[in-house]
Specification:
Elements lengths: L7 E2 L14 E3 L3 E2 L5 E8 L3 E8 L9 E7 L4 E6 L4 E8 L7 E8 L5 E2 L12 E2 L5 H6 L6 E13 L6 E2 L14 E6 L12 E9 L5 E7 L5 E8 L1 E10 L9 E4 L4 E5 L10 E3 L4 E14 L7 E10 L4 E11 L5 E12 L3 E9 L4 E13 L2
Parallel strand pairs: 10-11
Antiparallel strand pairs: 1-9, 2-8, 3-8, 4-7, 4-9, 5-6, 5-8, 12-27, 13-26, 14-17, 14-19, 15-16, 15-18, 19-20, 21-26, 22-25, 22-27, 23-24, 23-26
Length: 377
């Protein structure tokens, strides 16, 4: 009968040495065959990647299996059952210097982990939650690291029978995906918005950077009516008025252009973009499950028939795909809501957007859809 030992700290795979940007800590192979489990905890102020690697031939540095964990900036704990003789931990820091690092590894016989009331549950958490959970609510308030919720909303007024398919966003013209990364030209009425006015003073812009990674940029409006962002990107998911003067909103429209085409518009008084377009990050995938659509006629008689289509443009294949279509006959109904149990699966770097086509002038379409974006493992 194999003798089992009490808990022991793996000094070879524990570290408190801070890592600089893009640096890696590589532990040393340790024989764990006399223990039932391996448990490890890491806490640092910079995100990174932790790998638990196993082998039966450490002398060859052969990796038989490798489990990967995305590490956030909260205490993260994992427990694994021993299935191979040797293991080691490898931690890869992201592109920012750490200010502290605590990586501890224990070999022993550990009970199942449990997640208390105040602990965030990551995508790769292997702890049993001991609190009642509502998945959607916990995603919305940030208790599920690795998942980003996003609700898109938009409208298109003044649709015409001769206009053909028109993007559902609060401006004229149609959306065109950016072919390459670009800085953005921001145009605005500098008598009502910008430095020293009662309107919008700065913008928070959620966009994809040059590598297709989701990030947020802050732009302080000037006083000329036309600014250029200090950053470049591949697409804008949302622009929001971050602060304003006594008007408490943007007084006139603010437009963001990539050098050739409009990418986002904050309409007068809205303080946030109104457009049914979403850019999936290059390091993530997304699932859209909820769609709500309403169509009406703004003025005059008639009951429009409105064709709604959803498209996905793949930056990988550089191809556009139709993934949704429905017709609203406003003589019988003006609204529809869809809760799709499987959802519309969106791959990395996909762009989903919606268009409308009507047979009657002065038609308006309002739409909303929600999605969850999951970090790639």
């Amino acid at each position: 009968m194999t003798q089992r030992y009490a808990n022991k700290r793996s000094v070879k795979n524990s570290s408190e040495s801070i890592l600089l940007a893009d640096e890696t800590f590589t532990g040393r192979w340790e024989d764990c065959s006399s223990y039932d489990t391996i448990s490890f905890a890491v806490k640092t102020d910079v995100t990174g990647i932790l790998r638990a690697q196993f082998t039966s031939k450490p002398e060859d540095d052969t990796i038989d299996s490798s489990l990967t964990y995305k590490i956030g900036t909260f205490n993260e704990v994992h427990r694994l059952t021993v299935t191979r003789q040797f293991f080691r931990l490898v931690y890869i820091n992201d592109s920012v210097d750490q200010t502290y690092m605590s990586l501890d590894c224990m070999m022993g016989s550990h009970p199942l982990l449990s997640a208390p009331m105040n602990l965030s549950l990551g995508l790769d958490a292997d702890a049993i939650a001991v609190r009642p959970t509502n998945f959607a609510d916990e995603v919305a308030v940030g208790r599920r690291p690795g998942i980003t919720p996003f609700t898109k909303f938009g409208y298109r007024e003044g649709l015409t029978a001769a206009g053909g398919e028109e993007t559902i966003w609060a401006t004229t013209g149609n959306f065109t995906p950016q072919p390459t990364t670009s800085t953005y030209t921001i145009t605005y009425n500098n008598t009502t918005d910008g430095l020293g006015t009662t309107g919008a003073l700065n913008l928070y812009i959620t966009y994809l950077d040059d590598n297709g990674i989701a990030t947020i940029g802050i732009h302080i409006l000037g006083n000329t009516g036309s600014d250029t962002t200090s950053f470049s990107g591949l697409g804008i998911n949302r622009a929001v008025v971050g602060s304003s003067g006594s008007a408490n909103m943007n007084v006139n429209a603010i437009t963001l252009i990539d050098g050739g085409t409009t990418q986002a518009v904050i309409t007068a008084g809205a303080s946030v973009t109104q457009q049914c377009i979403y850019h999936v990050a290059s390091d993530a995938k997304a699932i859209a499950k909820f769609i709500w659509i309403e169509a009406n006629k703004l003025s005059g008689g008639g009951s429009p028939r409105v064709l709604i289509k959803g498209y996905v443009y793949s930056r990988i294949s550089e191809t556009t795909y139709e993934i949704f279509r429905t017709t609203l006959d406003t003589s019988t109904t003006t609204m529809m809501s869809i809760n799709e149990p499987v959802g519309f699966a969106l791959g990395s770097s996909d762009i989903i957007y919606f268009v409308a086509d009507t047979d009657t002038n002065n038609t308006t379409v309002t739409m909303r859809f929600s999605l969850l974006e999951y970090d790639n493992e």
